[in-house]
């Protein structure tokens, strides 16, 4: 297994988008490609954080970055940037006849809830290669 779920061509397109939306701290994150790959891999496969393959580094670094960026709205900003680059990715159609709520679904989201960010990252991960022009792939 390679260390990254991004091909070199797709990372070339994703990196500026991620740099544009990520919070700027005192020190830039180390191995950002590997960490973002770990987050995308986890959401593509539905695995637990602790089940991340060792090629992606320490699992808690990816989990911590995902949660921190979720609370700061980074994933939504990234989704907005990606949608502007390829408008087809921003189009989602839902048929209301098949959407059912669980009987315990009443109530507001809990503070720090990352469910919306999970869905956004899952969508981004599923369409990660769609930004790469077909002639380059």
From TrEMBL:
Superkingdom per UniProt: Bacteria
Domain Insertion element IS402-like: 7-79
Annotated organism of origin: Saccharibacter floricola DSM 15669
TM region(s), chain numbering: none
Protein name: Transposase
InterPro entries: IS402-like_dom (IPR025161), Transposase_6_like (IPR052909)
């Amino acid at each position: 297994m390679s260390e990254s779920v991004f091909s070199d061509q797709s990372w070339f397109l994703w990196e500026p988008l991620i740099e544009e939306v990520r919070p700027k701290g005192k020190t830039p994150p180390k191995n950002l490609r590997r960490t973002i790959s770990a987050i995308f891999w986890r959401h593509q496969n539905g695995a637990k954080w602790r089940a991340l393959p060792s090629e992606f580094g320490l699992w808690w670094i990816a989990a911590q970055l995902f949660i921190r960026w979720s609370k700061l709205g980074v994933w939504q900003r990234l989704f907005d940037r990606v949608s502007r680059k390829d408008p087809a990715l921003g189009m989602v159609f839902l048929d209301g006849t098949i959407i059912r709520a669980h009987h315990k679904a009443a109530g507001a989201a809990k503070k720090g809830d990352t469910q919306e960010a999970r869905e956004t990252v899952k969508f981004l991960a599923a369409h990660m290669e769609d930004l790469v022009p077909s002639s380059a792939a």
